[in-house]
What we know:
single chain; 80 residues
Amino acid sequence: MQYPLSNPLQLAHLLMSARKAKGLTQAAAAARVGISQSRLSVLETDPSSITFEQLLALMSLYELRVTAHDKRTASAPGSW
Length: 80
């Protein structure tokens, strides 16, 4: 399933939903990626300060991947 993101609120929702789908508490997820529970709480409500490293770590934990697509073309993902 794809989750197109166009604003921080959508990313916040994705982070929280993905964590819950994996059955993880904020404390457990945060410990696994090396951040505090309070930091994860902030990222799940306002991810505007998330670092790329934190994003990649959380996406990996939740078994998601980050991709970028050119909205101007209808080419298949991964084709350039």
